[in-house]
Structures are given as C-alpha cells and as structure tokens.
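User: Okay, second chain of the day. Same drill as before: sequence in, structure tokens out.
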Amino acid sequence: MHFVGAGKLSAWLPPDASYQAAQMDSAFYGIYLAAAFAVVFVLGLAAVYVFKFRRKNDSEKAFQTGKANVVFQAVWVLCAVGLALYTFTLDFCGFMDRTVAPGNALQIEVTASQWKYDFAYPNGHVADTLHVVMGEPVQLKINSADVVHSITIPALRLNQAAIPGQETTSWFTADTPGTYDVRSNIYSGDGFPGMQTALVSHTVKEYETWMATVTDIFAGRTMEEVGQMLYDTQGCKACHSVDGSKLVGPSLKDVYGNTFATKEGVDILVDDAYVRESLYTPNVSVIAGYEPVMTPYEGKLNDKEVEAITAWLKSISKFAQQEGN
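Assistant: Same drill. Structure tokens below.
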C-alpha cells in the first residue's frame, strides 16, 4: 500500500492541468484526511475499550450494562452528521461550477466508437486528438456511435460516459500548456486497450497555426501520406490490418490489383472503381468469408480523399507495383 504510506499527498494523482482539477484534488485530500482521522479515532477508541474492559481473569464477572449516556450518543451522532456535511459541502460549489459551462465555451462534439475518438470543431474539422486553447473554456458534447464508452482525462480530473443515443456534456479550462492522456475507462471490446488519444493545450498562436495546417490535409503531404493518415484517423485500422492478419474485415496488404471472390461467387478485381465502391457503398460486393458490416463513408470522405486512399493502397500492394500502377 505505497499509496497510503506516501508522505507527499500531491504524488498520489497526476499533475493537474486545470483549475477544476485543483478544486477536486483539494476536496479529495480533505475527504481522505477526514476519513483517515475517523478511522483512526474509532479504532483507537475500540483498542482503548478492549484494553480497559477486558476480562483480566476467569473469575471476573462482566460489567453490568447501564443506561445509555444520552450526551455521548448525541455527540457521536453530531460528529457523524458533521463529517457527512463536511464532505458534502467541501466540493459542492466546485461540482455546481463543473456542471454548467460558461456561455463563451468552445463547443467541440466528441464521438466515441470502437475504438477511437472523433473531435469535431465548429469549423467542421474532425480530428482524432483534442486540441484546445490554454485558458479558454471548452465544452465537450459527447456521443457514442456503438456501445458505452467514456472520455477520461486524468490531468483534468475529467471523466464522462459516452452513451449510445444520449448526449452527455462536460467542460473544462486547461490552464497549463502540454500534452495529456485521453482514454476510456469503460471496457468496450477487444480493442479497448488501444482506445487512447491526447489532449494538446496550445497558446492562441499555436492553436491557430495547428488549425490552419490540419484544415487542409493535403498541404505538404503526398497522396500516399494522406491516404495512410486517413487510414489511421477514420477508424479503418480497427477492422483492416496492413500486415496480412484477419480482423473484422480483410487485410489491406497486397489488396490493390488482386482478385477476390465475393460472397455472391463473383470474382472481382480490386481497382480504383472497387476501392471507391468499397468506401461509399461497402456492402454491395463483400469479399467471401466476411460479413457486410462496414459503415459507408459516403458523405464522410470526398473524391480527393478516396483518391489518396487508393494511392496509398497501391503503394502497399505488390500486385499494383508489378503492373506498374
């Protein structure tokens, strides 16, 4: 129990990166110390009573019970009520503050799914990491695309469930620059350990630079690099490997230029048209051995992004390279 014996209380929790975290830490340590005092006090009284009133020899008779001491009972009850009121009021104001976001908070929509997060910004940009301006309030509007998840940011002491069909909200103000872990603490399937991303707290200038850079994903990147980035950020890697291993869907290794049999018994060549069809209407021609469970990306990807994914698939396929594509 190194946690209990730690001499420095601040070492028990990760460094706080928001003023809300400091409020919660103060409440936690206050409740912890009050509870520790209560435990020591009760156990101490028990030890004293056992020592004082123990039977010293076999012939000694037990003490006769008398009337209850009303004063002691009242003091005991008042102490218990006082401890309860202390723990309730310790962070009540902080709880109310964390419940209602300021009117000028930046609105970011969060969609949790197996096993990733999508953060949609007011300008329409969707990122797989959470970027905010240091010192400015941010409200998260949280949804789940499939099962129950959560968004947990330990440095902010933020933990909020993501529930299918129900929007939940949470807000914070990151007051320290840096990069902090974001994860889910609710088990949601085999890929749960990989459901992690990051919160990046920027200065205003850094945030504006980042937003200008990511808004145009093709700036400074080749088509192949953009295709791989889309594979990483659009949830493709949850179902399609690039090393030949079988997941929910077929592996993308050497898929372009190859011929496969579909569930309907038709042989089909994976070319530009098939890649486009597989992304926009994926369940029309399904490779044999797999189920038609892929989510359509029509409306989520534009034609240029599909071209980038196609270029990337060509770059990792020996069949496309043999044909000189």
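The first strand starts at residue 106 and ends at 113.

User: Thanks, on to the next one.
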